[in-house]
Design goal:
The structure is a homotrimer.
Chain A lengths: L5 H11 L9 H11 L5 E7 L3 E2 L2 E2 L3 E10 L5 E4 L14 E6 H4 L3 E2 L21 E2 L2 H5 L5 E11 L2 E9 L6 E7 L6 H19 L6 E7 L3 H9 L7 E7 L8 E4 L7 H13 L3 E4 L8 H4 L8 E5 L21 H20 L2 E4 L20 H16 L1 E5 H8 L3 H12 L4 E4 L9
Parallel strand pairs in A: 7-8, 11-12, 11-13, 13-16, 14-15
Antiparallel strand pairs in A: 1-10, 2-3, 4-5, 4-9, 6-9, 10-12, 14-16, 17-18, 17-19
Chain lengths: ~425, ~425, ~425
């Protein structure tokens, strides 16, 4: 496999960063166009405003030309040409002159991070406002300010992207990254970049699962996809949301709502095998789109992969989540964890030992290692474990879990044994045999 | 709710203390008369001697007028007018003169606590004896002693009290405190005082469960109630025995025999939410009447709430378990834990999210907090948890357990959601809908 | 019970040590003749070469007269008259002259333990070789060496021993020790000695289970027994493999493949009750014949009892596993653990409390301790536990586990209660009542 290196992934984050994204609008369309250049097969879907989506409906489309706030002396103190964060997302169009007093409730800043611009939106109630550094806000003189918010908020579409990699079965794998956050590197340019790199990798495989890589706005985007795919939803066997996968923290995974599902187990084994620091947090209905996939009506086995958990670093949802906050090595590491996890999900299978009465004679079949050393001992031990636990009840992940052996070694042992007469695959009743 | 304060509870312990109680007799009747003054509705039951009760039968009734032991020089060295503990409980009537040598096997003291009088009984085999401080015993001169035990032991009744607080369902809650121990403050004047205060509190509620607060002698009293109520016993959903709830130790609860029942879970969550030191001990068939409720033929979900575990403090079952050993703050704290536990038991329910596909739009229903701050964030998080886990399988206690949120916050969130169209209550098949 | 003391057990190890054992051959027959002298009833079975055994077949019989390697100067540098380890097990007959260069691939030594002779075999592919101390190997001069391997490798038999102790039921207990390792004290003269001492002890009992004590070569021997006894195999309720039970390490037991079986639970309780250091290791398909008993087609509840785990001490599979490496006290301790474990397996039973509604009145039945003190309190507590948990679902081991009381105390309490009307034994449907 040839994956983009960390510097290329970082370069891509930089390319996405300036595009002004939101829940809807042309920024999302430009983003998807860029993403489509990194992985073939990205389909763009447009869903009209007003489309009912479970308890919600698709909101109006918002587009931003430019928003500025001009001080009494003519200085422009907030300008979306400098950063798209300068205006509250989904601000309605405004052209007005206001005193500082009148303006204050519309101005958002971060007293604890006085040089950074906060990220604010008002998707579902009409409003407007500006975001600016607390240092700037503190220095604003009294007087009359000119507000110019040149936006459109009107019927249009919600836009999302999807890359489908067909598998040999109808089981579905899901990778999901939100596309709605503007001008922040970790949240979630990193997620979009890693998701498309993973999609490109999946296209080099002949996977068992049919993988759907979803690039959609948060909450409503995930719900739109769920509503649009009632036939696929019950077939989702494993999924992962990618959000904030580029910062310096260790990989952190969130349990699925049910826990103990294929993706939970695959991530656990992969992170154990990699032996780098990592963390697991329990499921909670607070976070990214795993909240929607894990709502009780769906209860899908979808995890969240991140690095430092959202909300627990000061740069979160501010302009300080910039290119310096994400690292080539972290982006690459997140991608590798995902590639290994896909391999564990794809490579998992259940076998039955066809010679279950005692250990079969490996030597007769040329399965005894001809060389000594640690690798040969591991290979032999892995074969003994696979033979011992291949009783139809244990899949290869269970064997990796119980033996402590790496999933790759267990998979290799199963391949070696399956090439003789000693193993036959067991297809669970809900799985279509590959054709 | 208005509960008696700790000083009032302590005053009540002091009022009960001097009454000479035993398994049967007028001391129990006087005790129940006092308890009935603290909570309306206390019914007194009299069960005749000889009534068969499972493997037992109701013993003869014992009444004590006075017992004295007089030394050769005329000094009275043991006298039930000083403490009812001075005579072995259920001593048969005796009038005799005996040498110290003859008397010794009848005299009980505590070498390790030489100033205290021990508590001894001989309920089920006829006997007699005196209890006195080891210091006094050591100083007794040789010579002839006069024994005067003026008791009656004859057919009569076993007396117990019961307060029933009707609920909207036929499910039963049980609170049980033993009434048979004389002259000891923690064991069990404290239990009787807290049980009646809890009963008075229950009368201010319109509870879901029908609560039975039982004030009965240990072992045989609990068995009498179980034998008398064969229709109620299978409906006991949660119960707690109160014994030794006034000393300075932390609250300690004992698991029910089965463990993981409603009362175990409610106590766990309440004690976790209170965040004060507390302890849990496993079930064992050694203790108070939870032994009887938890015998294999009943296997009722009845816990034991105490503070320092019985038998593990030197004052246990001695005259040193006096008014100074129990504390107003401890009595009040035990009562509050019970009030909260009743609230958790009563407030527990299972709901179904009627909009389970994704998160419903809370804003549209006015459920988004209008104020910021920690309380608002907790309220919002609690709503998300309740929505996420209200799938018919999780009750509110399960949601409190898994989320880490306080039961009161979870209950409040369920109330807010149930007031909209988003939640509907699920009635388990064995539960009658409230009418 | 009268068991051989540690010195007698050590003397027996010394007696077995010099006999040249292998997978087959007269050394095994001589070993079984000696073992038969320590326990009556040892039957010797001979299985012809070529007999199919699941995926294997019985190999040719190997007998060693003498093997020597003579240096150019006439010095004999390896000689099976000095140690049977000097020749690779199952070496084919050879008479040859070879240069040191030609010889080297045939010479085995231990650089890390330069004074010891390693143990090597080549059972299933024809080969030959010598084992010698690394110090000797290093000092060998160039020149022509004379190889004399006077062995026979031809159709014959595989020989194993079995002691059957009939029980009152058809349930089977299995004790298994491998007989094939030559000239090593811990591995496995110790196992054979302890197994026969345990068999002799079992003959003094009237056991419930029918015990089979198997003394057979590793792997193929266990498989031969399994193949020969298709009717017994499904009845194996508890088993233990003995290997390396004489060294100074603590007792170590290996979980059965399934875990939580009768033998796992009995060993756990016995080791807990003995309160000496001990260890538990998880099941793995690497070790001794528990690998075969625990293959998926059999999945028998067979544990492995050892002291220091095989492979984790430097003397393992070398001539340094000698008489000094095994200790009288360790041999005796291993035997005692097994005797206690057999008692726990045999003594385990499930009862039903016939008076389950409340605690029955023990005093009336003379079951209240007449003496005070710790033993009496333990006896009383054990009776309360047995009564409380004898609901048909808990066996005595479960009561010992949950109460923390010693299995012997629990068993004694059940005996006392069963002698009254308070307990009746529950026979699981798969168990034949004793006749």
């Amino acid at each position: 496999m040839s994956l983009p290196d960390g510097h290329e992934l970082h370069r891509r984050v930089a390319e996405l960063l300036p595009i002004p994204r939101s829940l809807t609008g042309d920024g999302v369309r430009r983003t998807l166009a860029v993403l489509g250049g990194w992985c073939e097969g990205l389909a763009v879907h447009e869903v009209p405003t007003g489309t009912p989506v479970f308890d919600w409906e698709v909101p109006q489309e918002w587009n931003l030309r430019r928003a500025t706030l001009t001080a009494p002396d003519g200085t422009v103190v907030a300008d979306t040409d400098t950063t798209p964060l300068a205006v509250v997302g989904y601000s309605e169009p405004v052209r007005a002159e206001l005193s500082l007093e009148q303006l204050r409730p519309r101005l958002h800043s971060l007293p604890d991070l006085p040089a950074a611009v906060p990220y604010r939106t008002s998707y579902y109630s009409r409003s407007w406002g500006f975001c600016l550094p607390h240092d700037v806000l503190q220095g604003l003189p009294e007087g009359t300010y000119r507000v110019s918010i040149d936006t459109t908020l009107q019927p249009g579409h919600l836009t999302y992207g999807e890359i489908v990699i067909p598998g040999t079965t109808e089981e579905v794998g899901l990778v999901s990254a939100h596309t709605c956050h503007p001008a922040m590197a970790n949240d979630n340019a990193s997620g979009m970049v890693v998701a498309t790199a993973l999609a490109a990798h999946l296209r080099t495989l002949s996977p068992r699962l049919t993988w759907h890589v979803l690039l959609a706005p948060g909450t409503i985007g995930a719900l739109v996809w769920l509503a649009a795919n009632p036939d696929l939803v019950p077939s989702v066997r494993a999924g992962v949301v990618l959000a904030g996968v580029g910062d310096a923290g260790p990989v952190t995974v969130k349990r699925t709502r049910r826990g103990g599902t294929l993706i939970d187990r695959a991530l656990d084994v992969v992170l154990r095998d990699r032996a780098a620091p990592s963390a697991v947090v329990p499921f909670s209905p607070w976070g990214y789109d795993e909240r929607q996939y894990g709502s009780p009506g769906f209860d899908l086995p979808v995890s969240l992969l991140m690095r430092t958990p959202h909300g627990s670093y000061p740069q979160y949802h501010t302009s300080a989540d910039d290119l310096g906050f994400v690292h080539p090595s972290s982006l690459r590491d997140s991608l590798e964890v995902l590639v290994d996890t896909v391999a564990a999900v794809e490579g998992n299978a259940t076998y039955r030992n066809t010679s279950p009465y005692g250990e079969p004679q490996l030597g007769r079949r040329g399965l005894y290692p001809t060389m000594g050393g640690r690798a040969a001992r591991t290979a032999q031990l892995a074969m003994l474990w696979v033979l011992n636990l291949s009783d139809g009840d244990h899949d290869l992940l269970a064997i990796a879990e119980r033996s402590g052996l790496a999933m790759a070694d267990v998979r290799a042992a199963a391949d070696a044994l399956a090439a003789t007469d000693l193993l036959e695959q067991v297809y669970p009743s809900q799985t279509r045999r590959p054709t």
